[in-house]
Amino acid sequence: MEYIEKLKEIAQNLLFYIDEMGCDNKLSILRGWSLIGEPSYGEVLAYQTQRRSIVAGYNYADKKIIALLEYSGYTNTEIFNQWFEEHLCPSLKPKTTIVMDNASFHKSSKLIEIANKFDVQILYLPPYSPDLNPIEKVWANY
Q1: Which of 32, 75, 77, 98 is most deeply buried (CB count within 10 A of its CB)?
Q2: Which helix (H) or strand (E) holds 22?
Q3: pLDDT score, position 126
Q4: What total of structural domains would you count in the chain?
Q5: Virtual CA dihedral for 98, 71, 136, 117, nearest 10 degrees?
Q6: Where is the Tc1-like transposase DDE domain positioned along the sequence (predicted)?
Q7: In CATH, what number is assigned to the domain containing residue 39?
Q8: 15 in Cβ contact with 28 (< 8 Å)
C-alpha cells in the first residue's frame, strides 16, 4: 500500500493527524416497533439546536492534541483553511507531514498554498479508511 510506504519514511515526531467532528441533538429515530396494525410513537425535539464542531491536530508520537478549535456550525473550506493557517501550521515545525482524510474541504488550492508557505507536507489517507487515522480514537473518547 503506497500510503503505508510513505508513512515509513516520515519521522514520527514530524507526523500529525488532523480531523474534524461535530455533534448536535437534532437526530430523530423515524422508525419504531409496534404491534401489527398499531402506530409506533416516539419523541422528537420541538426545536432545533446548533451544531457544535471541533477540529484539531494529533501527534501520535507524544499523544498530544494541538490547535483544538471549537465552533458553531459545519466545517467548510473557509473555516478549515482559516484554522489550518492561523492555528495548526504556526504550531508545527517545517517539514512536518499532516495526514488528513479526503473530505472535499481538504482539497482546495488555497490549502496547498498555505502548506507551502509553512513548509509542511500533506498526506491524504486512502479513501474510506478512518481506521488509519489515530485521532478517530481520540474522538471516540471525547
Answers
A1: 98
A2: strand 15-23
A3: 95
A4: 1
A5: 0
A6: 15-140
A7: 3.30.420.10
A8: no
Please say if the pLDDT value at position 46 is more than 90: no
One-letter-per-residue 3-state SS of 38-104? CCCCCCCCCCCCCCEEEEEEEECCCCEEEEEEEEECCCCHHHHHHHHHHHHHHHCCCCCEEEECCCH
Cell of 35: 404491534
93: its cell numbers? 515545525
Residue 108 has pLDDT above 80, yes or no: yes
pTM for the full predicted model? 0.82
Specify burial of residue 110 (Cβ count, 10 A radius: 0-12, 13-18, 19+).
Answer: middle
Total number of residues shown for the chain: 142
